[in-house]
Amino acid sequence: MDVELPELPFPLRTYGPDGNWSYEDGVLTGWAGARQDRFVPPTGEALDPAADAPRLLGAPEGDFQLIARVTVGFAASFDAGVLYVHVGERAWAKLCLEYSPDVPTVCTVVTRGHSDDANSFTVEGSSVWLRISRTGRAFAFHASRDGEHWTFVRLFTLADEGPASAALVGFMAQSPVGEGCVVTFDHLAYRDSWPQGLRDGS
């Protein structure tokens, strides 16, 4: 199913399980079902081929920034709302507001064959602003408590499994160990540029 959001210059398509995606008055809403997640354990455990989570993704052109305030209806550990970038089946990354495991936390996962997992900073309440940016082959993750001052979280590339220009980006909801959760994305914004500075708060 294709979804058009007025804030974005490219259409979005659903991937994975049904996320019951809806959009109204500037608010995008999605649902993760019980034990839905995308993670390839670095400990060598076998990947369950059925492991997946609802995603709504599109293909921007050139340099960009994708911004949203993410709010999560936390019900269990690791419930999360996610900005997501996908280059290949084992080359993708997540910027999450996650209940990790007992306090809302900005977390990141970068998967190159197997996933890593890193926590950034904790958040009061259930909302935070997240931003994915791209220039050339590089991606950057930022987060903000107020939507004005941005904290640098991560800089990386996924291009080994495909051109960065072919990346899909968008939104995901997850509930790895819980019975499901609802995620909303608002204050959506798109810019066709790379941030002026990665570490200066801009």
Automatic annotation (TrEMBL):
Signal peptide: none annotated. InterPro entries: ConA-like_dom_sf, DUF1349, UCP022704. This is Regulation of enolase 1. The lineage of its organism: Bacteria, Bacillati, Actinomycetota, Actinomycetes, Kitasatosporales.
